[in-house]
């Protein structure tokens, strides 16, 4: 089948070469010389482009504008970014923003052709939605929410309690933490479950039309059925107002009235209509700050935040990562009709746990999805998560060759076999979840002494600080940040333990 590939590159020579190599694989190529022209083509050919190959230095927007455009569009198009060695930071940013893959120039045309084939493979396997924002089933039960950490157990407890009440709920948390999933679970467990759950992303609707979208619009002959408005659509059910902090002030005033009186007035109309809607709002912004800056009405804030639930970022509940990754691997294996679900090797699990996941559960879900689609064996290994490996400092993994800008050092070499995170092991043996080679590595912190007793906290702390100094090559602010302590505390501890930051392995005489 001929696929349509859009190449965005400002260098005419590069465009010609890329066009030739992609066409030689039987695909049709469309070229654009900058982001703007690329966006235009995407708009015109919406639905027809199967993958985008984007040079990150194209145009003024540094290519990232195309990614945010795709994001806004929730377009079903994998994007492969190309960048020069000096632009690898940008490439990593792009991966976070949802790019499918990246290649660092100079690279072989073969590597690019393979990246395109992989992207098409992914696209073919999931034509329903862009991997970054996968669709979710309408009905979500609390039992579908994977929660192994104490933080998430608390969220579920609050969620279950919220089911019983009729109060508005405010779900707070970074993008991708699972706010909508929680809102859906609350709806499904409530007596409103037989009625609609309507989600509206306030950040995605132009200010000029938001009132009509929410409250409907009256045409001259009465209410236009085509513009019922989300409140009416949700009547008897739940209205999920995503990114409520982005609601413009004029719509906030109308929303306040709706919440206070249970009545709405359609845009252009005068008479109020009764509605019975439970509101669940969500925000990734600090709404108190928005109130202080007069961008959000204080009275509305208090009305909506009667029952606040904060979903913690994934990096603050790392215990969930392994469980989530396994569940996603199982789900995607079943979706791909694999004979047996793909398992996750201990190296892969350690890698996934070491990473901070700025895009939270959604990013993890996409990483596992990509890995399942492209996997060749029965088990997912570190090699199946090259983007994650590339973003861990001091890591020389399979990706190091593709990412010349990645940090490398003797420390990096030493930790490369153990996925970037120190394991806490019992004396003399590696933990079950750790790779077999972990015990032999410098990346193990032993938790018991030779007589089998738990070691002193101070000893373990000293060892961890020495490890972190080596791992981050003596970059004190990074070491302090990663250890979760202030710089002055770090300096004090160095002094207490007699650690020389320039030679952390040297023991004081
Ligand atoms: N605890 C969880 N268990 C299983 N899947 C989860 C969990 N949390 C999130 N997900 C999945 O992660 C993805 C992102 O979740 P969701 O859309 O609910 O996040 P969000 O916080 O509403 O994101 P955004 O603010 O960007 O819209 C979804 O596909 C969801 O199914």
UniProtKB/TrEMBL annotation:
- Cite the InterPro entries for this sequence: AAA+_ATPase (IPR003593), AAA_lid_NorR (IPR058031), CheY-like_superfamily (IPR011006), Homeodomain-like_sf (IPR009057), HTH_Fis (IPR002197), P-loop_NTPase (IPR027417), Sig_transdc_resp-reg_receiver (IPR001789), Sigma_54_int (IPR002078)
User: Biological process GO annotation list?
Assistant: phosphorelay signal transduction system; regulation of DNA-templated transcription
- Name its cellular compartments: Cytoplasm
Q: Which UniProt keywords apply?
A: Activator, ATP-binding, Cytoplasm, DNA-binding, Nitrogen fixation, Nucleotide-binding, Phosphoprotein, Repressor, Transcription, Transcription regulation, Two-component regulatory system
Q: Which domain of life is it from?
A: Bacteria
Q: Which PANTHER family match?
A: DNA-BINDING TRANSCRIPTIONAL REGULATOR NTRC, TRANSCRIPTIONAL REGULATORY PROTEIN
- Annotated protein name in UniProt: DNA-binding transcriptional regulator NtrC
Source species of the chain: Ciceribacter lividus
